[in-house]
Sequence to fold (148 residues):
Amino acid sequence: MKWTQARFINPIQGENFLTTISSQTLQGASKGEHMRDYTYIEGYRFIILNIYRSKRFDVDRLDINFADKDKPEFVRGLRVVDHNESETYLVHGEDADNLSYSLCFLHHENTDNKPDYFDEYLIQATTNKEYLVQKLFKDEKPVIAAVH
Fold:
């Protein structure tokens, strides 16, 4: 088991906090790749499902799967990991819904299959703490603004 420290943006208070998380890694049988299976956040165990990956970002779905104390405020949501900035953002509730919708919307509109398409959106979303693509790029057509 690998133990790492990560700085998170708390989705409830909007504050940074440092926590130690552990990630179980499984050795891929054929390619030798590592796959994260679960992680701990504030003592609660979450299953990880990666839904988007680029050179800069990972977006993972997190679902609580073990708790032995009081219900935490964060039970289910998304984690955005910015590898360039060494930042991790947890989003849940309406923000997680908006992030999921926006990734689907941009995926459908990405007819040129540009790899930086989603990254520009994620840079703006994490900077502005606004995850709905239509609100993030109000003055322009969201697809064109996210690409350029």
